[in-house]
Amino acid sequence: MPNNSAGAAAPKILIVGGGYAGFYTAKKLEKSLRAGEAEVTLVDPLPYMTYQPFLPEVAAGSIEERHAVVSLRRHLKTTKVITGKVTSVNHAKKTATISVEGAPSYEMKYDQIVVTAGAVSRTFPIPGVADQAIGMKNIEEAVEVRNRVLGNFDKAANLPAGPERDRLLTFVVVGGGFAGIETFAELRSLATYLLRYYPGLKASDVRFHLIEAMGRIMPEVSLETSKWVLANLDQRNAKVHLDTQLKSAVDGVIELSTGEKFASDCIVWTAGVMANPVVRATDLPLDDRGRITAHASLRVISGDKIVEGAWTAGDVSAVPDLSGGGVGGFCVPNAQHAVRQGKLLAKNILASIRGGEIQNYFHKNMGAVAGLGVGVGVYQWRNFAVKGFLAWLMHRGYHGLAIPMWERKLRVFTGWAWNWIVRRDIVSTSAVKHPRLSFETYASRPGAAPAAAPAAKPAAAKKAAAPKAAKPAAEKKAPAAKKAAAKPAAKDLSKKAAPKK
After folding, report:
1. pLDDT tens digits for 13-38?
2. What's the predicted TM-score (pTM) here?
3. Which backbone phi and psi does 33 adopt, to 5 degrees?
4. I want to staple 21 with a disulfide (CB 3.0 to 4.6 A). Which of 117, 228, 245, 313 is the partner?
C-alpha cells in the first residue's frame, strides 16, 4: 500500500482479538504510527488480555487472578477498544459486523484487517465432558478450578469417609501436554499445602488422576525429561494414566479405556486447542484444521496468492515455521510465537502503509520451561535439561518478565515474594457467582406482609369468632323480645274489639 497522501483519509486498521498477538500488534502500532497516519480499532469480547502461562498458578492460588490479565484500555492509549464480538467478516467488501451488548449489531468499514482471535478448547464428543468438565484457557476457568478445589476441601472436611468424600477429593486432568501437566502438578501442590488446615483429612484421602491418550507426556521436552516428571508426580501421589482414553464422564463418573471407574467433582480438560470458530464466519481462506492460511510475512494467503489488506497471527493462524522446528511445518500455538508475531505484524503493517520492506517471521525455539508446583520445574533446550528447584526459578523468572507491562510484572513478582513470607492465600471466592443472594434473601418487597403479621392472625381470628359465639345468646333474647312485643299488640286488639260488644 502506498504512502498516505496529504489530505487523504487515514486508513482504518481493524484488529480482531486482543490476546498476545492482537495486543502487541496494537501496542507497537501506537508507538510507531505518526499522528493521523492510521486509525486502529481493536475488538475483543473481554476488556483484558490474559497471560495464559500463568493460569495453572492462578488455579493453585500462587498468583492473584487480576495480576495475570492486562487491561486493554489502560495500556492502549490511542487505539479504539470495543468490548464486543466480530460476528462476521466480508473481506471482499472490507466490512465487519460487530455485536455489542445493549445495542444493535452494526457494520464497520476497514482498509486492513488483522485476525488474531486466538484459540479455544478442542473437545471430542465424549459423553459427559461438555456438562461436567472445565477448560484452562481463560482466567475465569482458572479461578473456578481454584474455588472448586478449596470448596471441595471444605465440604469433605464435614463428611465421614465414604463415596461422597472420595468424589469431592478426586481431581482429574485430561491431557498430558504442557498445559495439562502444569495444571495437574500445580493443583497437586495446592492440595498438599491445604492438608495442614484440615486435620481430619490425610494425604491418602486426596487422589489425582491425569489421563493421556499417548504413550508419553510433554512432547516439547525430551523423553528422559518427561520420565523424570512422571517419577516426580508419582512421588507426590499423583497418578498418570498413559495410553488411556476417557470414555465417559457422565454425572462426574470417570470411565477409562482400561476399565477403571471412579467419581470426581473436578474434571479439567486440557487435551488440545483449535482456532477460534469466529474465522468460519469470514470469507478468508482456511486450512483443514480451521486456521487462517498465512504467508511467512503474516499476510493471509489463498493458495500462493496474497490476500491484500488481510493479516493474521497467533493461535488462529497457520504460520510457516521457517526455523524447521514446527509441527507439520507450522508454528506451534504458544506465547513465544504469538508475542513475536504480533510485534513483527505491526512492523509489516507500517511497511505496507509507508511502502517499506515486509519481512518474514523467523524464530528459533528458546526452549520450553514448565512449573510443576512450588519449588519444582523443568527446562529443556535441545538436549540440555534442567530439573527441580533451579528450573522452577527459571520458569518464574522467564514468565514474570514475559508478561506485558511493567506494572503487571511488579504485581506478579511482589505477589510471589509475599507468598514466600506469609504463604499462599486459601480463600475461596465462589460466592461471587451469586453476589445478590444475601441481599435478595432479606430484601423487603412491596406489598409483603410484616414479619409479625402471621403471629397476629390467631388473635384476629378469636375476635372474629366472638360475634359468632354471642349469636346464640342473641337468639335466646329474641323470643322473649317477641313475647314482650306480642303482649302490647294483644292489648291493642282487645281495645279495638271492645266496641263490637
Report:
1. 999 999 999 999 999 999 999 988 99
2. 0.84
3. -70, 140
4. 313
